[in-house]
Design brief:
The complex is a heterodimer. Chain A is α/β, with parallel strands linked by helices. Chain A has 2 domains: 9-293, Spore Coat Polysaccharide Biosynthesis Protein SpsA, Chain A; 302-420, no CATH class. Chain A has helices at 9-18, 36-50, 69-83, 106-120, 137-148, 167-181, 197-205, 212-216, 218-228, 252-269, 271-274, 302-314, 316-322, 325-335, 346-362, 367-372, 375-389, 394-410, 412-420; strands spanning 23-29, 56-62, 93-99, 124-127, 154-162, 193-196, 233-240, 284-286, 291-293. In chain A, strands 1, 2, 3, 4, 5, 6, 7, 8 and 9 form a 9-stranded mixed beta sheet that branches. In chain A, strand 1 (23-29), helix 2 and strand 2 form a beta-alpha-beta unit. Chain B is an all-alpha fold. Chain B has 2 domains: 25-104, no CATH class; 116-220, Helix Hairpins (Orthogonal Bundle). Chain B has 8 helices and no strands. Chain B has helices at 2-54, 57-64, 66-72, 78-102, 107-149, 154-177, 181-206, 208-218. In chain B, helix 4 runs antiparallel to helix 5 and helix 6 (154-177) packs antiparallel against helix 7 (181-206). The longest helix of chain B has 53 residues, at 2-54. The N and C termini of chain B lie far apart (111 Å). Classes of the chains: A alpha/beta, B mainly alpha. The interface between A and B is medium-sized, with 40 and 25 residues.
């Protein structure tokens, strides 16, 4: 039991009264009053239907909600206890609620969840976002079962996406993490995932919880930790995902700061693992590996190109300190090209990202600033993608994504060269 | 008459010899102090340089953007700059102590005044350095935020922030050293006030449309069409 001293006494008392469990479902919440009751109901239904004999606990960790979230959780627990008295003879589904901090942080929420999993010796755990409105009991079972029954240590979700959704994941996060870390996990950055008690204990031993990269996006760090430790990873197809309208996701700048900053940080802290690897391996996949739906209309593009062009122009000294002269010259050249004929080629895109990663490693300037300087270039790449694929079918887009992934893998020696070059 | 002249010359010669006899040991002591100071300063420089290399100060300075500024000003790296500064400050201190040993009237007072100023000069240099690093960091942060948000004239915003912080740091450093305090405060107030007034006029006249749009967007019913990027995740 590693380091449980950060847990509040009340929380510890609740955990000790539960004893050991087989399954743990963590629900990190922050101002989710409109959806939390439905989430709790869904999780409980899933445990009742799919894990009849297992001991289970539902753990709500709150980041200091200012709305009624906490009260709803407490009231629903009381109602449930009254209504289910005497009907839960085959299993025990406990509910625990606690505040992990006065301000929301996915990393600190996960820290409480893995500490609880470690303390209760849970074998399989899942983290579920209360902002997800398309959650079904089957989702929770899909994340827990591969861990509990198949012996996997990390289970990522797979969602149905429209053609123009999740471009950051498809153009950058997935292909880059696949090439660098060598595992084909498509959704490293998601709000739902499953993991084993063994992985929870390993996570708890790491002294990284105050790192910004882990505080913001702990799920990818957890996956990469599992990959690096040689644990078994997989992914489960869950279907279409919708979120509560009140839960607006991060804007593009914040999303890049969180996710790309996290990838670069994981590269920095796992060098010994990934530097000796080439190519990538598929992971156990349950259901279709990917599914782009044909719907979705291409978003407005003109402003995106303007932002790319002005970014390349205004950030010239910053980009000059990050990129090699050749790459910088190529980007400046395409920024001057006609917007209708604009192309940000995959080869240049991969080279740019690898140079950004190496500059992050060499700390040529403040690392958060470095990641932010990538935003205009990402916009350029997305503009080029939209121009090229406005009328493409989902299959053509998938094929293009695979070509990009292979380009990332092909250029990995270049990443190693820049990474090990003296700054 | 002749004897008086000879007596006077003898007296002058005797005084000169006496003076030299008194001065020469002091001069030797001064030279020894200066030489010892040179050795001590060199040793301190070497030790500091090694310690700063170990603490990777240059990387931190690079990260904070201070190194770029030093390169622009044709200055050496941060480690080299600090260790060389320590060398010169230490050696100058020893030279001043040596000069004070000479016992030249009037010089003593000036030297002691200079010694009293040394801590203030150090603090002033520190203020300037912190100001430089802060200005660079914040102006770059503002530039990135403005560029990524698509605001007009991001460089103007960035340079404005840099200028204000520099002006503040320079006036604080001069105030610390005690150089024409009243003048510095007055000059800073005038420069800062003029800058803010200029900004107010510029935004007031040039940004009427922008302000109207902003108010309409945030308070009014008429909403501008919002630019939405594709969902990134």
């Amino acid at each position: 039991m590693a380091e449980e001293s950060f847990l509040a006494d009340d929380f510890l008392n609740q955990l000790m009264s539960v004893g050991e469990v087989d399954l743990l479902v963590g629900i990190p919440s922050y101002n989710n009053a409109s959806t939390i009751a439905q989430t709790l109901h869904c999780v409980e239904e899933s445990l009742r239907q799919n894990f009849v004999r297992e001991r289970a606990v539902i753990l709500n960790v709150d980041g200091g909600s200012g709305d009624e979230t906490r009260q709803i959780v407490e009231q629903s627990s009381e109602r449930r206890e009254a209504s289910h008295k005497g009907l839960t003879s085959l299993r025990t589904i406990h509910r625990i609620s606690s505040i992990y901090d006065r301000s929301p942080s996915q990393g600190l929420a996960l820290r409480s969840i893995v500490a609880a999993a470690d303390l209760l010796r849970a074998r399989a755990c899942a983290v579920i976002s209360p902002a997800t409105t398309s959650l079904t009991p089957a989702w929770i079972a899909s994340l827990l079962r591969p861990v509990y029954r198949e012996g996997l240590d990390f289970v990522a979700p797979l969602y149905v996406r429209s053609r123009f959704q999740g471009l950051l994941a498809r153009e950058l996060l997935y292909p880059m993490s696949r090439a660098v870390f060598g595992q084909r996990i498509r959704e490293l950055y998601s709000d739902e995932w499953g993991f084993s008690g063994r992985l929870a204990s390993q996570c708890l031993e790491q002294d990284v919880w105050r790192e910004e990269a882990v505080r913001a996006r702990p799920e990818a760090w957890m996956a990469i930790l599992a990959v690096g430790a040689g644990l078994k990873c997989g992914q489960y197809f869950l279907g279409p995902k919708t979120v509560s309208p009140s839960a607006t996701g991060p804007d593009i700048v914040e999303a890049i700061r969180q996710t790309v900053g996290n990838v670069f940080w994981c590269m920095e802290t796992n060098q010994s693992y990934w530097m000796g690897r080439s190519n990538s391996q598929p992971v156990s996949t349950f259901g279709p590996e990917h599914e782009l739906s044909a719907d979705g209309i291409p978003p407005s593009q003109d402003k995106m190109f303007d932002l790319f062009r002005s970014g390349v122009n205004e950030l010239e000294p910053i980009l000059a300190s990050i990129l090699t002269a050749d790459t910088h010259a190529q980007i400046k050249a395409i920024a001057l090209s006609d917007r209708a004929k604009f192309r940000f080629a995959a080869e240049l895109w991969v080279k740019t990202l690898y140079e950004f990663a190496a500059s992050y490693h060499h700390a040529v300037l403040n690392r958060d600033h470095l990641v932010q300087a990538l935003v205009p270039l990402y916009r350029g790449r997305v503009y080029s993608f939209l121009l090229e694929h406005a009328n493409s079918s989902a299959e053509a887009m998938e094929a293009q994504s695979e070509i990009l992934c292979q380009e990332f893998e092909r250029q990995k020696p270049y990443l190693l060269e820049r990474w090990t070059a003296k700054s | 008459m002749k004897e008086v002249i000879i007596q006077g010359l003898r007296q002058a010669y005797s005084n000169l010899v006496h003076m030299f006899a008194e001065f020469l040991p002091r001069l030797l002591v001064m030279l020894v102090i200066v030489l010892v100071g040179l050795v001590v300063a060199y040793l301190l420089k070497t030790i500091l340089r090694a310690v700063l290399h170990l603490t990777r100060l240059d990387r931190l300075s690079e990260e904070a953007g201070a190194s770029r500024f030093l390169r622009m000003a044709a200055l050496p790296s941060m480690t080299e700059l600090l260790s060389r500064s320590l060398f010169w400050v230490t050696w100058c201190g020893f030279i001043l102590i040596g000069i004070s040993v000479l016992g030249v009237a009037g010089l003593q007072e000036q030297i002691s005044r200079l010694f009293l100023l040394l801590p203030a000069i150090f603090v002033a240099i520190l203020i300037l350095f912190i100001g430089l690093v802060t200005a660079n960091f914040l102006s770059r942060a503002a530039l990135l935020a403005a560029v990524n948000a698509g605001y007009p004239s991001p460089k103007l915003l960035s340079w404005s922030i840099r200028f204000v912080i520099w002006a503040l740091a320079v006036s604080m450093a001069l105030e610390q050293v005690g150089v024409a305090r009243q003048t510095v405060i007055a000059a800073f107030s005038i420069v800062f006030g003029a800058f803010m007034f200029g900004l107010a006029i510029a935004f007031g006249l040039g940004g009427r449309e922008l302000a109207r749009e902003f108010l309409e967007r945030n308070l009014g019913e008429k909403k501008r069409e919002k630019y939405e990027e594709p969902q990134p995740l």
